Amino acid sequence: xxxxxxxxxxxxxxxxxxxxxxxxxxxxxxxxxxxxxxxxxxxxxxxxxxxxxxxxxxxxxxxxxxxxxxxxxxxxxxxxxxxxxxxxxxxxxxxxxxxxxxxxxxxxxxxxxxxxxxxxxxxxxxxxxxxxxxxxxxxxxxxxxxxxxxxxxxxxxxxxxxxxxxxxxxxxxxxxxxxxxx
Length: 182
What we know:
Blueprint: H1 2-10, H2 14-27, H3 32-44, H4 48-61, H5 66-78, H6 82-95, H7 100-112, H8 116-129, H9 134-146, H10 150-163, H11 168-181
Helix pairs in contact: 1-2, 1-3, 2-3, 3-4, 3-5, 4-5, 5-6, 5-7, 6-7, 7-8, 7-9, 8-9, 9-10, 10-11
């Protein structure tokens, strides 16, 4: 049943996912996996207070749960609490060095804070593990643009278009650069 709930979460079919999760929790009230998915649904519904409560409970029960730290970081990030998000995401990465999704959110936070070196460090770490990671490459282009290295950013975006011709966000970023350069 957990796989079905996960499947429906992936499809953004939240009500279907909740039905399966409620069945699981009726049989196993303390199921950490089902509770984690409930927290994930709370984030999707922008109910960050409930999500953070769930993730804090899970972390209290298992401080080494990188997923609970990750989702806690995501909830804080979406709530606009960058510093708290950063702390939770750093803990997730500390627990699992190859946690690419956590590193992507960290890189995004660092970029927003204009901490370009830290953002690029996260992107480099991701690309060392997953050299074809589109998001890390796009973030690297955004970092270059943020640093004012517009020609380098344009070259990176152009190479992304060659490899990912159906990615509208790259065209958008390249278009933004062209507007700035005029």
